[in-house]
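Practice problem 4.
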């Protein structure tokens, strides 16, 4: 993650281009984590394919392309600006990224919470919870409409305020790598940092049966602490305790259609 921060700072400072640096970093990080999973698995049984690998690859390709394209989309939409820029571009880039991070992360937390509260939003989001194992590719397993629902509100706010598209893209790049670690089948702990960041140690509980309405945080977990949805116990999540009990097909196109069926 510190290496990712370093790359982000190089992109922000203009020393390397956002494209293709962003997608190269994300892909290399995913492959590295996949390798580590085989040497240090949290649950060895999660290494076995559950007839979901190819479908998860398709989800990842589409959603990662969407993530790295957001900056360019916001840049294009800026042509239609109808209100004055309110973004504090006079402050340092560091604090601008922090503002971008907090707005995006709170928006994701809130819409994630709503996706577990309302039936139709849940049906879109349930695709993400479909897998009966946790591993790095779960990070980008989501219905495209669910991705829009989750990220749309905060991105609209940032676009209206006139936030630099490059800063938004860089934070999403950082977040993509973080989500790989968050869902990774890697046995690691971060100590007190689990009360700040939504790492695998606390996020696994969100995928655990009966605890889906806990730990909604994407990058930061302190939203859950503030709003009372935080949960942690020093107890290993068993290999058969994740996933959803409803029947969802394994094929990609069938998963896209599934939320619209009765």
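Answer key:
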């Amino acid at each position: 993650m510190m290496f990712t921060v370093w790359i982000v700072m190089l992109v922000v400072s203009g020393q390397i281009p956002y494209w293709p640096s962003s997608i190269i970093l994300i892909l290399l990080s995913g492959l590295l984590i996949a390798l580590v999973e085989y040497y240090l698995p949290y649950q060895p049984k999660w290494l076995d394919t559950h007839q979901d690998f190819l479908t998860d690859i398709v989800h990842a390709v589409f959603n990662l392309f969407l993530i790295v394209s957001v900056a360019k989309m916001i840049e294009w939409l800026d042509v239609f600006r109808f209100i004055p820029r309110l973004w504090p571009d006079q402050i340092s880039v560091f604090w601008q990224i922090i503002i971008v991070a907090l707005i995006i992360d709170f928006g994701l937390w809130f819409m994630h919470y709503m996706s577990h509260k309302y039936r139709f939003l849940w049906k879109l989001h349930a695709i993400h919870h479909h897998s009966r194992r946790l591993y790095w590719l779960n990070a980008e397993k989501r219905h495209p409409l669910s991705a829009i629902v989750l990220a749309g509100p905060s991105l609209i706010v940032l676009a209206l305020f006139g936030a630099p598209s490059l800063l938004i893209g860089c934070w999403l790049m950082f977040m993509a790598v973080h989500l790989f670690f968050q869902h990774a089948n890697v046995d690691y702990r971060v100590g007190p940092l689990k009360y700040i960041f939504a790492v695998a140690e606390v996020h696994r509980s969100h995928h655990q049966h009966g605890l889906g309405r806990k730990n909604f945080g994407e990058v930061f977990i302190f939203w859950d602490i503030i709003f009372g949805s935080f949960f942690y116990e020093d107890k290993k999540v068993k290999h058969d305790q994740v996933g959803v009990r409803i029947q969802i097909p394994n094929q990609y196109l069938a998963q896209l259609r599934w939320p619209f069926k009765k």
